[in-house]
Amino acid sequence: MRLHILILPVVGLLLFAGSAAAQGEKTVKTIEVKRVTAVLLVEEIEPCLNFWVDRLGFTKTAEVPDGNKLAFVILQKGATEVMYQTFASVEKDDAQAAKDARKGPTFLYVEVDDLDAVIAALKGVPVVMPVRTTFYGAKEIGVKEPAGHFVTFAQYGAAQH
Prior knowledge:
Blueprint: E1 3-5, E2 13-19, E3 26-31, E4 38-42, H1 46-55, E5 59-66, E6 69-77, E7 80-86, H2 87-93, H3 95-101, E8 107-112, H4 115-121, E9 127-133, E10 138-144, E11 150-156
Parallel strand pairs: 4-7, 8-11
Antiparallel strand pairs: 1-8, 2-3, 5-6, 6-7, 9-10, 10-11
């Protein structure tokens, strides 16, 4: 099963710089964005590992321990990456950011090549949006991962059921 989180990768971002000359001309500089990765903030990382690693085949590529728990982890499958960080870890760096992050869950939209395989892998995970076919040609299902974030999995061009 191939996964691709649609927020990854983003390329061709344009940045408008300040005036280039007294005439008020503007210069445009193209910046190549190499990767955009979601960082999901959670109380505990460990309950989320089963969702990504065991069910979906991601690999833990980096981790930062905090005592006998994890404070941060990077999970990767192919070019797709997702990161988790604990609220406590964020709080050590920026208490206001940690407070703001607690206001609501994150929503991820993940494009896959085989939605049926994802559905089978996620058996027992709370479904928040039953399988549907959209007007934009995607077959989708929405679930809630163990930390309460919402993840929509979508397959484009899937046979319509």
